[in-house]
Write a structure and sequence with these properties.
Length: about 850
């Protein structure tokens, strides 16, 4: 989205008021933001801001000085409901500068002093209520490389609410796009838009807003990279502070020793999101048994970046196994974790100076559970459980301070009062006693005055406008004592005050004001005390998230019947009776057909044939998902599984186009394949389904054949290659390590029955007409199709026999295509 244009002053025959002059001075500093200008109980917007915001906020667009020839557009929203209005603007990609009154309007001389206290952007949201708890809103800061060959760009990523910063370099545009595809940033911070790849990124992420701050990227003596330095300056601009705990321990952009899952893979395998919609079935959804917000976010991270370290994977498996074996241990940890709220976001909210009393009470209640959690986890035997227990910091002193200071139930805002326990501070107790005694004093004055004046209807009441007054009905006005001072006439009588009541009111109001002022001052101090412990609190939050996911994996294994995979540094990938973790949850119990497969040195490439709807892609995907789950630390849906360390999984499954960028389905397919063969290694797992179907038969067959040879001979990755080109099955004779397998189908009368079972051998038929019949095509179309198929098959038989004879003569070459030798093919591909 483009930045909001700078506010221009329309022609007007009315001079600007001091308030509008102040508004424009503030707006000048935030030209790309909607300015929420606080006026009493409302945030007001004027000029271009009002014109842009009113339709989004669905509020009435009005104007100041309506009688003028050019009235000033304006609109407003109530401050107490600001959250819902911010949500609407952020969803449309706007930034909002929150401008508050910096002094009490009742005591201000002249115009009230105002200033912007923070800027809220789609990426920089300090209020957890505005962001779904399982979502991270990333801000990406990108600066073109320094000219070094290995540095295409410096990149820093900030998750403000999560208290997390990542920083490093990427070596290519493709690597940058892959990185941003995993984080899906809401905002991109750059020096200038005058670089070619910015348009590529905006095409990839049309909802991402672009913020340009060239001055932030200028040379500096700081040890930070330009991207990280610019990020700090931008955070200082928007949040009015740069001393956040986020900067204490910046993380690398890519976790060392993690499996690579590019955007195509994460999408086609539906790891986080279902292609049928955000709430559809995905691996994340079916594995989510987490108890805390930190756990849900951690589960997403682990599935998107599975471990690549054998010892770390085995460490997680050990914990999951112990939770499964020891029900009492798992139940006790679950019981302690269950009530824990979002410590991570509460901590960041506190560090940003946005936390209210109820937030600090929530942090206190979490801290009170940590000693018990620490002790329960300590009872585990697994090495990682011991480490978590030892690292967890209970912050005993801070917990005690919050317990002594804060009420059991604290208010949502400072203005409500009642934040601290009376015993916490002697003056709080004194002011509260005075306020409490006021009720009995009022009752005493009222009773005494009734008796003294003989007026039974006399009432001593309080209103915010007139304070304490004595109300007397018309029937008894003749009995009013001369020392009563008339205050106001009302419908059925008069209101009066006395000197005694005036003095009492001054005393009570003074006490209430002093109490409010004291509580606000004490709260700001205790909030800073909590903020100072933010690094430890954030570390605790990470540990709680990790513990939650490990417990979650145990719950999933118990509920779904998963097994512990045997992990190896290298070797065969063998799955016995594997199941698709998502599909099996969508079918009635026992209806899913499990399948086994083994990718060894003798069969590292499986060429899969079989009919449409026979289950080829399901079998392929389940193998990849089982590998991902195992590397993430989860048990897997299989009778048994042996999984070697896999450095990356690449997929080319399904069909899609990118017509907005001029790329057909076939072009997208070829682009994805090109990226696979460029990046895959012998330690990778490749899934390719139906390559070459987007062009002519011989074009497609030639490409599929050549690609299969290249992956098998040159890349040497473990590969599942599904195809309808049955000619490719001949390669089993010429490529050692390639094996033909097929998904079984039975024909009964004129019907076909899908068995969804993978077996050695080939399938010589596609059964396309039978599938078309199941889909409901007209009978006339089906009959004609069978006639045509019979003719075409008859005509091709002579060519097939000739090709078979050619292959027998030239066992290691694709003779009927007059193919070049493998070495020549390799050279041609590289050029």
């Amino acid at each position: 989205m483009e930045a909001l244009p700078t506010t221009t002053l329309p022609k007007s025959d009315v001079p600007l008021t001091p308030m509008l002059v102040q508004y424009l001075e503030l707006k000048r500093n935030y030209p790309d933001s909607i300015l929420f200008y606080r006026m009493g109980d409302f945030y007001e917007m004027f000029f271009d801001d009002a014109l842009a915001a009113a339709p989004v906020l669905e509020v009435q667009l009005t104007s100041r000085d309506r009688s003028a020839a050019n009235p000033i557009p304006m609109c407003g929203v109530p401050y107490h409901a600001v959250t819902q209005y911010l949500t609407k603007l952020l969803a449309k990609g706007f930034k909002v500068a929150i401008c508050e009154q910096m002094e009490d309007p009742t005591t201000a001389k002249g115009i009230v002093r105002r200033d912007v206290v923070r800027v809220v952007t789609p990426a920089l949201i300090g209020d957890p209520d505005l962001v779904p708890e399982e979502t991270k809103n990333w801000l990406a800061c990108v600066h073109p490389g320094s000219g070094e060959p290995a540095c295409f760009a410096e990149v820093s990523l900030l998750d403000l609410l999560g208290g997390e910063v990542k920083s490093g370099v990427v070596n290519s545009l493709r690597e940058l796009i892959d990185l941003l595809s995993r984080s899906v940033p809401k905002e991109l911070l750059i020096a200038s838009g005058d670089v070619s790849w910015i348009k590529d990124l905006q095409n990839e992420y049309p909802q991402m807003i672009v913020t340009k701050r060239p001055v932030y990227f200028e040379e500096r003596k700081s040890k930070d990279s330009k991207s990280l330095g610019a990020l700090k300056l931008y955070l200082s601009e928007t949040q009015k502070r740069a001393d956040l705990p986020h900067w204490k321990h910046p993380l690398p952009l890519n976790e060392a020793m993690s499996m690579v899952l590019d955007p195509t893979t994460t999408s086609s395998l539906e790891i986080i999101r279902s292609n049928s919609g955000i709430d559809g079935p995905s691996l994340f959804r079916v594995l989510d048994f987490t108890l805390t917000p930190m756990g849900r976010r951690t589960l997403k991270e682990w599935l998107m970046a599975p471990l690549g370290s054998l010892s770390a994977i085995q460490g997680r498996h050990e914990v999951v196994g112990e939770f499964l074996a020891k029900t009492s241990l798992a139940d006790s940890v679950r019981e302690t974790l269950s009530p824990i709220r979002d410590l991570e976001r509460l901590t960041t909210k506190t560090a940003l100076g946005l936390a209210m009393p109820k937030d600090l009470v929530a942090i206190r209640e979490i801290l009170k559970r940590l000693p018990d959690l620490k002790e329960r986890v300590r009872k585990g035997k697994a090495k990682r459980l011991k480490q978590i227990s030892e690292t967890l910091d209970t912050l005993t002193e801070l917990t005690q301070k919050l317990e002594v200071a804060l009420e059991d139930v604290a208010p949502a805002t400072l203005r409500d009062g009642g934040i601290f326990r009376s015993e916490f501070h002697p003056e709080i107790k004194e002011y509260r006693e005075l306020s409490h005694d006021a009720k009995s004093t009022i009752a005493g004055i009222e009773s005494r005055e009734k008796a003294r004046t003989g007026i039974p209807s006399l009432k001593l009441k309080y209103s915010r406008v007139f304070g304490y007054t004595i109300e007397i009905t018309k029937n008894y006005l003749s009995k009013v004592p001369p020392e009563y001072i008339r205050k106001q006439t009302i419908a059925n009588g008069e209101r009066f005050i006395t000197e005694e009541i005036k003095k009492f009111e001054e005393k009570v109001v003074s006490a209430e004001y002093k109490l409010k002022t004291l509580e606000e001052s004490l709260f700001l101090r205790i909030r800073e005390t909590v903020a100072a412990q933010a690094p430890i609190l954030l570390k605790n939050a990470k540990l709680i998230g990790e513990l939650d996911v490990l417990l979650n994996f145990a719950e999933a294994a118990k509920d779904r019947g998963y097994c512990k995979p045997k992990m190896l540094s290298h070797g065969a990938l063998t799955i016995v009776d594997g199941r698709h973790p998502v599909v099996e949850t969508l079918l009635p119990t026992g209806k899913f057909v499990p399948n086994s497969m083994s990718l060894t040195e003798e069969s590292r490439t499986l060429l899969i044939t079989g009919p449409n709807m026979g289950g080829k892609s399901t079998i392929m995907r389940q193998a990849a998902l089982i590998a991902i789950m195992a590397h993430a630390g989860s048990f897997v849906p299989a009778a048994s599984a042996t999984i070697p360390l896999i450095d990356a999984i690449y997929t080319r499954i399904g069909s899609s186009d990118d017509l907005a960028r001029g790329r057909s389905t076939f072009m997208v397919e070829m682009t994805e394949v090109a990226q696979i063969v460029e990046r895959a290694t012998p330690r990778s797992l490749i899934l390719i389904d139906e390559i070459g179907r987007g062009t002519s038969t011989y074009d497609g067959l030639s490409l599929a054949w050549s690609l299969l040879e290249f992956i098998h001979n040159d890349v040497k990755a473990k590969t599942l290659f599904a195809t309808h080109f049955h000619e490719l099955t001949l390669l089993e004779k010429s490529l050692p390590g390639l094996r033909n397998v097929n998904v079984l189908v039975e024909k009964w009368k004129d019907e076909i029955i899908f068995l969804y079972r993978l077996a050695p051998g080939i399938c010589n038929q596609s059964y396309g007409i039978e599938v078309a019949k199941l889909a409901g095509l007209p009978k006339k179309v089906l009959v004609r199709a069978r006639d045509l198929l019979s003719c075409l098959e008859t005509q091709s038989q002579r060519g097939t026999r000739a090709r078979n004879r050619a292959l027998e003569i030239h066992d290691n070459q694709m003779a009927f295509f007059d193919a070049p030798k493998p070495s020549e093919s390799r050279t041609e591909l590289e050029t």
